[in-house]
Amino acid sequence: MIEGIYNSAAALSSLEKWQEVISQNLAASTVAGFKKSNFAIESDQQKKTQFSPDGVTAARHSGGIPTRTTSVNFSQGDLKNTDSPTDFAIEGDGFFKVQDSDNKEYYTRDGEFHFNADNTLVTKHGLQVVGESGPITIDPEQGPFMVSKDGTMSQGDNQLGKLPVYDFEKTDSLVRVDGGFFEAPDGTNAKLVEKPGVSQGSIETSNVKPLAEMVNLIAVSRAYEASQKAMTSHDDLISKAIGTLGTPTA
């Protein structure tokens, strides 16, 4: 019975975390290039016998109690045509590289860019977009700024280089940071995508499906209610057992 209370309490905690993940997904469902978080709850039965054959000790060591994992879903979102020459979407795998004022590098799928007062291509948060040879700048008097499918940049008759796309062998090593960006851990090297698919005048929408997240939210609510009832039931059984059998005397 005590193990049941431990399990129910762990389930409630996991469901609260799942609800938090769903809320974050829904809040960012309209952010260009946002990648949803997946959430999983699993029961670790192996640890149950690893620590002790009795359920109480096992429960206290997380054996048999649901465990939770969160991961980023990097599947591609739909492409939305904007006709803005400074909006870009990546068709396929990869990320744009950007850097802040301290030259710290981040990676993003959000290609909603613009030129700032210095005619430098930046994100909507003001971070510089990193081109093949550094920051991307243009001369407004030299004609429109164009980027081909392979990332080649040009302005009028002048070829400016390339808008590179980077990828990683294991994207699950990337760390999500505020603003829809990802940071590569130390020792994780980005590699250039040899044949990128850059679409100018489009942005990639979030891969969050609001309807599916709402269904998950309902499921969480029902599961939370069931876990609460289970905990109350176990507590009532313990109270009845104590009332019937009494407490041990010295």
Keywords:
single chain; 250 residues; alpha+beta; 4-stranded antiparallel beta sheet; 4 helices; 30% helix; elongated
Strand content: 25-35%
Overall body shape: elongated
Q: Count the helices. How many?
A: 4
What value does the Rg take, in angstroms? 26 Å
The largest β sheet comes out as:
4 strands, antiparallel
Explain this structure.
It is a single chain. The strands form eight sheets. The protein has a four-stranded antiparallel sheet, with no helix packed on it. About 7% of the residues have low confidence. The radius of gyration is 26 Å and the shape is elongated. The chain is built from four helices and 19 strands. The protein starts with a helix and ends in a 5-residue tail after the last helix. The chain is α+β, with helices and mostly antiparallel strands and 250 residues long. Helix 1 runs antiparallel to helix 4. A hairpin with a 5-residue loop joins strand 7 and strand 8. It has two domains: 112 residues, no CATH class; 126 residues, no CATH class.
